[in-house]
Amino acid sequence: MKIALLEDDLAYAETFKQWLQEADFEVNHFVRGLDFLKEFPDSKYNLCIFDWNLPDMDGPDVMDSIKLRSKNLPPIIFVTSHSEEVDIVRVIESGADDYIVKPVSRQLFMARINALLRRAKSENEDEVIATFGLLTIDSLNRLVFLDQEEIKLTDKEFDIARYFLKNQEVLLSRTHLMQVVWGSAIDLETRKIDVHVSNIRTKLKLIPEFGWKLTSVYQKGYRLERIGA
Question: Whole-structure pTM over 0.85, yes or no?
Answer without folding.
Answer: no
